[in-house]
Amino acid sequence: MPSFAARVVRWQRTHGRHDLPWQRTRDPYRVWLSEVMLQQTQVATVLRYYAPFLERFPDVRALAAAPLDDVLARWSGLGYYSRARNLHRCAQVVVSDHGGRFPGRASALAALPGIGRSTAAAIAAFCFGERAAILDGNVKRVLARVRAFDGDLAEPRAVDALWREAEALLPARDVDVYTQGLMDLGATVCLARAPHCLLCPVQPACSASQAGTPEVYPVKRRRARRSAREHAWLCLERGDRVWLVQRPPSGIWAGLWSWPELDSREALAALSAAWPGRGHWLPSFTHVLTHLDWTLHPLRWTLPRAMRAADVAAITARWPEGRWFTRAEARDAGLPSPVRRLLTPDDGAAVVRAARPSAEGNRRRARAASSGRAAP
Ligand code: SF4
Predict the structure, then answer these.
(1) What burial letters (b/e) apply to 21-49, b meaning 16+ CB within 10 Å?
(2) What is the pLDDT of residues 145-180, one digit of tens each?
(3) Which atom of ligand 1 is nearest to the CA of 142?
(4) In Å, how far are 118, 301, 312, 367 from 360, measured between CA atoms?
């Protein structure tokens, strides 16, 4: 009977994916970029970002030399922005410590900022043919099912044991095809729900499928605790300009540009009560981050064009880390997707003066807030 690895390799050659842009190269810069973009993000989304990013930053030196703001702007909409910051930092280390060349071993790649063990192994396998095991989320699922591995993957000890399984299954050759095959299996056949076992090349070797229990695996008992918070956003505009503030260098959306934030609708209503111009509340919504449901209440406030510069400055002085952007400039800046969506002027429906809303009204609005899961 062919080995597990032989089945994966044979299947990848005939049924796997071969036409993704990052599969046509052994350039570690391009492979690394694709691997980082693909973490937590679907292929269809990455395809929209990959080529424009390479056009702006064609090699590791160009990326290292670019301002972080520029990198965040090109990443804008992909979410999980720590990836972009690490990407930038990693490029700088590759240039400063390695002469602009990525190291050729997985162990050295894993020492670079933002490159985890699995990503390092994928780069080493694809670009340098190293016999190194990967274990990203999809591959964990495939291997846990094949081995009916019932260790709790919330526990580091169990993850270590699965790494040992991954290493034991590695073929002696064709490790690049095998690595791609595992990725393709996880992405297209061994799906989290309703895996296509009848189409799967490793079904005869899969313990979970043989037992009729593939969806029992992988086992993960400890769930991350979710939290919730609420803020009011001030979408301040004057003519074609909007006032955005740069977020702190750590925490949610670190370093990106966002709307000024207040603790509550009441606080924002009170603050803006005496301002000239007109304001209206936009629909509240809940933005879902990895461990946080964040409900946001945006208030769009339009200052009169004729206002004196000193009076405008008196309002914006509260956010010294902010500045005015034209809408075109803002679209080119690093903005989280919910901030970007609110850049477009609305039609002013349901315009109200920014009166202090009642607590019950707030509760009703929060209950009605959209619960759509948005990309971070
Ligand atoms: Fe996944 Fe089913 Fe294939 Fe097993 S046989 S690896 S459960 S798709």
Answers:
(1) ebbeeeebbbbbbbbbbbeebeeeebeeb
(2) 999 999 999 999 999 999 999 999 999 999 999 999
(3) 6
(4) 49, 23, 33, 11
Does the beta carbon of 203 lie inside 6 Å of ligand 1?
yes
| Residue to mutate (ligand 1; options 4, 184, 200; most atoms within 8 A of CB) | 200
Testing ligand 1's pocket by substitution, the residue of 11, 138, 191, 209 carrying the most ligand atoms inside 8 A of its CB is 209
Atom 1 of ligand 1, residue of closest alpha carbon: 190
Catalytic annotation present for 167? no
Pocket of ligand 1 contains residue 189 by CB under 6 Å: yes
- CB-based burial of residue 278 (10 Å sphere; 0-12 exposed, 13-18 middle, 19+ buried)? middle
Look at the block and give the residue holding tokens 């050729």. Answer: 104
For residue 223, give the DSSP letter. P
Radius of gyration of the chain (CA): 25
CA of 215 to the centre of ligand 1 (A): 9
Whole-prediction pTM = 0.77
Q: How far apart are CA 42 and CA 80, in angstroms?
A: 13
Mean pLDDT of 51-69: 97
Nearest alpha carbon, ligand 1 atom 5: 203
Residues 54, 75 contacting (CB under 8 angstroms): no
Task: Annotate 297-318 with three-state secondary structure.
Answer: EEEEEECCCCCCHHHHHHHHCC
Q: Which of 308, 209, 321, 311 lies closest to 259 in space, CA to CA?
A: 321
Q: Each residue of 89-132: pLDDT tens digit?
A: 999 999 999 999 999 999 999 999 999 999 999 999 999 999 99
pLDDT per residue over 249-274, tens digit each? 888 998 899 999 999 999 999 999 99
Dihedral angle, C-alpha 99, 105, 111, 116, nearest 10 °: 130
